[in-house]
Amino acid sequence: MISLNQEHKILVVDDEMANLQKLQRTFVNRYPVLVASSGREALQFVEKESDIAVIVADQRMPDMTGIDFLRQTLEPLPHAIRIILTGFTDVEVLLDAINSCKVFRYMVKPWDPPDLLMTVERGLEAYRLAVENERFRKELIRRERLARELEIAREIQSYILPREFPSLDGWEMAAEYHPAREVGGDLFDFDWNPATNTLQIVIGDVSGKSIPAALYGAVFSGQMRSLFASPRPPAETLAFLNASLVPRYHLSNYIAVAYLSLDLKDGMARLANGGMPFPCLARGSEVTRLAASGVPLGLLQGTNYDELQFQIMRGDLLVLFSDGVTDAVNPDGQMYDEERFVRSVHLHSSEPVREFARSLYRAILEFTRKAEVNDDIAILALRRLR
Q1: Strands of 286-289's sheet, edge to edge?
Q2: Which sequence spans correspond to the domains of the chain?
Q3: In this predicted model, what pLDDT tens digit does every residue of 352-382 receive, in sequence order?
Q4: Is residue 346 a contact partner of residue 150, using CB atoms and an 8 Å limit?
Q5: Average pLDDT, the chain
Q6: Mean pLDDT of 217-244
Q7: Three-state SS for 36?
Q8: Measured on CA atoms in the order 70, 71, 72, 73, is the torsion positive or negative?
Q9: pLDDT of amino acid 93
Q10: Residues whose CB is less than 8 angstroms from the CB of residue 262 and which lie 6 or more positions away in sequence, other chains included
Q11: Concatenated DSSP letters of 104-149
């Protein structure tokens, strides 16, 4: 026995019982068959069964003609194959109605079951092609919409990330930012107050990737910019931000942040860290990790943060970075890790800060050997010249 093709149902409609039985026998053991003895009864199947692939209908029925019935199936079953069974006297009427009702074929009574079965098989090929084209069209629309959403997210992020660095007397800054997707969740920002000669720097990593992470980052950056205007100590700032973010974020969403406040006159710095990698301080031939730790923002209400105070001396180089740097993986499954990064900082520390930041990123690319990047990479470098 031939197994049923459960993907495609056939609806047969005829007001004569003998014809219905003949139609049913034609398709039995090949396709599931729905049987209706009138157009109204058939419309009930059309309302309930969205997977009807073929409709075979008699033209002359007492409650409505086959053409009238098929016309009402166009919207609920746009891709169904429609076949009309008719007598010789109906041919001219059918020719006028074929285009308006998307009739695939008409067959003159009495029909030959093998011919009808062959017509249905050919119709199903057209049906499968139409369905596949519709899927392709919807996928194309979805991708176009996603591309537009990504474009909007990129525009949002372009407003968030600084486009240039301030000209700081006796200091130089540079950054490297490379999202893993079209848009990323890493962020950095800074604010320089010429009146007090104070520099504030923030670098963060939003959980997740792409558009959601970029939008979370936009919300956080807006809050951060408002706080730059009335700066608080870094530890107090992170505690305040955490308290405002916890009610808004689900536990699966959080932001790791490192916040630095620096007096450019004497190089005195205060650092608070909420889940970011420990920054590096290169001084002469030594590279020191600044061990300031804390819980990422948006996870736990009432979190307090410690504050690390240190001085940046003449010639010192401070490097803040996201975990996408040390978590980068090569094709062998090895991570770039902190030890490699510290060696790279030491190796390139004598370079001008702009070239230094580029060298750090190039070293990561050489290690990963162009393997797929799974996390955003952000590197922010600050050097005291005198």
Answers
A1: 171-178, 377-384, 317-321, 280-283, 286-289
A2: 9-136, 161-384
A3: 999 999 999 999 999 998 777 778 899 999 9
A4: no
A5: 88
A6: 88
A7: strand
A8: positive
A9: 66
A10: 198, 199, 200, 201, 268, 269, 270, 312, 382
A11: EEEEESSPPHHHHHHHHHHHHHHHHHHHHHHHHHHHHHHHHHHHHH
* pLDDT value, residue 162: 82
Distances (CA, A) of 107 to 65, 110, 112: 15, 8, 9
pLDDT for residue 243 is more than 80: yes
Structure tokens at 211: 């558009």
Tell me the C-alpha distance between 289 and 302, whole Å.
27
How far apart, in Å, are the Cα atoms of 76 and each of 43, 72, 131, 234, 267? 10, 8, 14, 61, 72
Express as a percent the part of the chain with pLDDT over 90: 55
Residue-wise pLDDT tens digits, 298-342: 888 899 999 999 999 999 999 999 999 999 999 998 999 999 999
Mean pLDDT of 164-191: 86
Rounded to whole angstroms, how far apart are CA atoms 243 and 248?
A: 10
Find the angle CA(84)-CA(87)-CA(93) to the nearest 5 degrees. Answer: 65
Q: Distance between CA atoms of 70 and 106, rounded to whole angstroms?
A: 13
Question: Per CATH, which fold does 9-136 belong to?
Answer: Rossmann fold (3.40.50)
Q: Is the per-residue pLDDT at 47 higher than 50?
A: yes
CA distance 33 to 77: 16
Q: 258: which DSSP letter? A: E
**Does CATH place domain 161-384 in 3.60.40.10?**
yes
Place of tokens 């803040």: 320
Q: Which residues contact 56 (CB under 8 A, 6 or more apart)?
A: 10, 11, 12, 13, 23, 83, 85, 116, 120
Single-letter code of the amino acid located at 61: M
**CA 314 → CA 2, 180, 317, 382, distances in Å?**
86, 35, 9, 12
DSSP class per residue in 268-280:
EEEEEEESSPPPE
